């Protein structure tokens, strides 16, 4: 076993925490420990290699593949002549893989990183602020550090369903690099990953069946939005809602999923199965208990609003910080990036620390149509208003009521805006429809800067006839 090496700063991970080093830390000794993500244990974290970036490149491709089925309503006859899966996959990873490799090379050997040691392997706590790193070559290193920043992320959770793990299901870690598209795919789960991949695979010609325990997909969204998406996806793919999966088996033809709906037994078959039932934080792989670290719900590392790690008694563990999926209830890249900036600031300026929880967190779901939201849904806002004795106002604006909606011939999209009736403070907004993930940003900005619906509607020109008129018209409903 090697002697213990002490560093000023230990960083765990190469996703969001990879933005921690910088020229202003040149006088500090830093060790960055990274096991890598996915089957190839690649550098650079989930978003770049297995998450946001490749999925959205697939989604853009899928949107184009869907165009012929949508253009008919505008009097344009188009035909999809084919889908070249290897070309689609290799365009995407041909761009991403060199970025991952270049990022690793930069950390490992560029002079900018002369004060940084990169260890490719798995870190585990052996004591408070003490880590053992198992390197890829089987050797180990013992590390201690004054400051430890945990950015170890999360991984797909395979639920404890009879036979599922043995059936070697696809997950988001593997599905984007398949050798060939299957003819049919079962998707287990109905959250964000499930609805994004349902769109991608269906648009590329796969016969998709989505298996949901609940009656609606994307239940994290407002009930009306979730119901609308369920209706729309139900017109494109086979939706098996209200189904409790009891077993999954590999068969000679592919996979067989058995489940129950009430007293009815349901058997579904497909060439492959994709599991999208949530992601679990990697706190177990780090053995955080040995480091004296406390856990919050779902295996998350417990942190306070300054991203300081807490012990099991809720006390701050000095010098230990966490960010991103390992500690956050919102497993989103923009949240991880924001928390990275907060941690970096707080480590460098302990006398003027910043909180990480002062802005509303927006969600953008890149299915088809897109869904996005920020703040409260209608049901939550109503319940809160009832408790506080305040009143809310709700505006619903259909895309079909604005000029650009006519141009798009959109018949299903809408924005729902919830405001405080008196002040017109924006409490929440939900959008389902084209460019929802961009349109929501107007409302994210207003909520983050404290602009009311009245201010936002009346203190600027709104370009006519552009899509933001959807937002303007909803604001005008509540801004009198
Ligand atoms: C399919 C998919 C699509 C997504 N799309 C979006 C999207 O559109 N928008 C969005 O905002 N978010 C999206 N996300 C979520 C987003 O990818 C994550 O929230 C974000 O990447 C988390 O960043 P992180 O730095 O916390 O963790 P990661 O980027 O996962 O980094 C964790 C790092 O820790 C390392 N590590 C783990 N355990 C150890 C250990 N014991 N020792 C050493 N190293 C270790 C890993 O190698 C990795 O480098 C998506 C996720 C998935 C799976
Ligand atoms: N566009 C984006 O921002 C984006 C895209 C993809 C992923 N992500 C992040 O990744 C996280 C993980 O995504 P996800 O879709 O796996 O999780 P999720 O939490 O969005 O959805 C999980 C779904 O699986 C269901 N489920 C859980 N156990 C089940 C079981 N045994 N049988 C059937 N269904 C079961 C849940 O009811 C839920 O519908 C998301 O929470 C999100 O934060 C974000």
Automatic annotation (TrEMBL):
The keyword Oxidoreductase applies. Keywords: Disulfide bond, FAD, Flavoprotein, NADP, Oxidoreductase, Redox-active center. Residues 361-474 form the Pyridine nucleotide-disulphide oxidoreductase dimerisation domain. Its cofactor is FAD. Residues 28-331 form the FAD/NAD(P)-binding domain. Belongs to the class-I pyridine nucleotide-disulfide oxidoreductase family. This is Mycothione reductase. It comes from Brachybacterium rhamnosum. The lineage of its organism: Bacteria, Bacillati, Actinomycetota, Actinomycetes, Micrococcales.
